[in-house]
Amino acid sequence: MPISGVVITGRPEDKSEILPVLGQMAGLEIYGDDERGNVVAVLETETSEEMEKLIDSIGKTPGVLHVGLTYLNTEDEAERLAAGREVPRPFGFRRPAA
Questions:
Q1: In a domain, 67, yes or no
Q2: How many whole angstroms separate alpha carbon 56 and alpha carbon 93?
Q3: In this structure, are residues 39 and 33 in contact, taking their beta carbons and an 8 Å threshold?
Q4: How do residues 21-80 score in pLDDT, each as one tens digit?
Q5: Residue 81, pLDDT score
Q6: Cα separation of 77 and 19, whole Å?
Q7: Global pTM?
């Protein structure tokens, strides 16, 4: 199960609109925010592909300027790969968005 820590950046004046939208996203837990428009969150999904989709969704949220990945743990998927089991599209192995 991939787990990541992110800093989501928006304009400070948009934070009151961004926080409720982020708070409704499955797999996203907000841990704090500051007056400069930064939001600290943890993301937890079943697969790396779901993680990438969630990060894309956050980035497309109106008012969000940037999603910075600060921590990523895909140990479960790495163990499956090392054991020779198939892992559908590990993190970072997808085609670039058009």
A1: yes
A2: 15
A3: yes
A4: 999 999 999 999 999 999 999 999 988 889 999 999 999 999 999 999 999 887 776 666
A5: 64
A6: 30
A7: 0.79
- Report d(CA 28, CA 90) in Å as an integer: 20
Does 37 fall in a domain? Answer: yes
Which residue bears the tokens 């020779």?
84
User: Containing domain of residue 78, as a range?
Assistant: 3-82
Does a structural domain hold residue 97?
no
Who has greater pLDDT, 90 or 33? Answer: 33
Q: Does residue 51 lie in a domain region?
A: yes
Domain count for the chain: 1
User: Any idea what the CATH number is for the domain that residue 72 is in?
Assistant: 3.30.70.920
Scored b (16 or more CB within 10 A) or e, 23-34 reads eeeebbeeeebe
Paired tokens of 92: 């970072």
